[in-house]
Amino acid sequence: MTLSPVTTLRRATPDDVPAILELIHDLAVYEREPDAVKNTVPVLTEQLFGETPAIFAHVVEEDGDVMGFALWFLNYSTWEGTHGIYLEDLYVRPEARGRGYGKALLRELARTAVERGYARVEWSVLKWNEPSIGFYQSIGAQPMDEWDTFRLTGSNLALFGTSQ
Question: Do the bridges between strand 82-92 and strand 65-77 make them parallel or antiparallel, or are there none, so unpaired?
């Protein structure tokens, strides 16, 4: 998808991985977790472009520079009997915000879902992130008020995963 003569939305390539990882670090800073990213270029490259990739990414490129990305994977609805897209990360560099890049990335995921017969595109947003919440609501996305996200990680994951 071409946004303007100098801006392009496209699927990520292996050459984009360093820029995507840089944006992941920027997103972690924005989400107040600056030291949380453990991912590396080799790991992300393998996961996106290895023999059996389970994650996918699109980027917005402006004048040859990656200005934003969407990283996603498939989920599944047992009720609908079809896949959906789970958007893990959507991030646009602060200096590129307001140009429609985030909306274009989300529209591309919606187009992909419709084209493939998927039932939904969904994601999580931090409760304090009012700018993003307002943006998501402006495109017709609705919060799932009756659902809470649970996560099992670290020592609790290890303990539970190795217990009888």
Answer: antiparallel
Residue 124 has a pLDDT of 94
Looking at this protein, which amino acid is placed at residue 103? K
Residue type at position 47: Q
- Cα pseudo-dihedral 69, 132, 136, 78, rounded to 10: 70
Which residues are part of the catalytic machinery?
136
Regions of the chain with pLDDT less than 50: none
Phi and psi for 30 in degrees, rounded to 5? Answer: -60, -40
CA distance linking residue 103 with residue 96, whole number of Å: 12
User: What does the pLDDT read at residue 4?
Assistant: 58
